[in-house]
Amino acid sequence: MILKGVGTALFTPFKADGSVDYETFAANVDRQVEAGVHFLVPLGTTGETPTLSTEERIEILKIAKAHSAGRPVVVGGGTNSVPDTLAAMTALEPSGPDVFLIVVPYYNKPPQEGIYQYFKTVAAATKKPVLIYNVPGRTGANISAETTLRLAKDVPNIIGIKEASSKREQILQIIEGAPEGFCVLSGNDDETADLMKAGAKGVISVASNVAPAEMAALTNALLAGDFAYADTLDAQLRDLYRDLFIESNPIPGKAAMAQLGLMQNVLRLPLVPASAATEEAMAKTIKALWQK
Known about the structure:
By secondary structure, the chain is an alpha/beta fold. The protein has a single domain, classed as Alpha-Beta Barrel (TIM Barrel). Helix content is 47%, strand content 12%. The chain has 13 helices and eight strands. An eight-stranded parallel beta sheet has the order 2-1-8-7-6-5-4-3. Helix 4 links the parallel strand 4 and strand 5. The relative contact order is 0.14.
């Protein structure tokens, strides 16, 4: 499977009492599909997955699959422990994920050989495709280009990487050295245009929660080689990219979604709702985005 275009790292909506708002989640998946996103990514960092129970994760995946209209569903399943990762994958697999998104093990700070052996072991435990997720700003560990390419060549069901390291030369080395069928996806909205021009296939996006049609249009233009139009769209989205990270993701994004009437502005501890300054910034950015 080759993933390309925009995949939305979906927010998990909660009700005022803190329970998962499954109806709103389904409605937001429908909005994504109608806007033309290419694939869906529930249960990632953006979805506050560490705060969800196994039962909640399974139900979220079932809803994403049921409302995906045939689009691939890439589901987060990684931890910093092989047994825990395999347990998460075993729990989710009956609900039909198309791809497992597995994060580089966090907190442990493994060496490159440990990262290689971890992914090789995890991938061997499933027939599903596996997508590596590199986000050293959160995990404290970076998977090198050499290790990524080693896995790409040695493990057939490791199909790509979501690269959120912001290490441009490392990412370009992966793009240039990857075997056929191995996809590189941007993990940062503001790097999407640059990396796709260099050969990346798409992005797993936070911004597309708020602006799915715009992010779909951007990636479609980039895939088509229409870089002039892509640059225009990218410029219009720059303030949104920035403001979605003025506090920890998904705090600003949930504030934006609440302002748009798409979900309640409720997060689970240790995250809390946005500050007044962030609320004001998001309101200004959203207003400007649709005054084109």
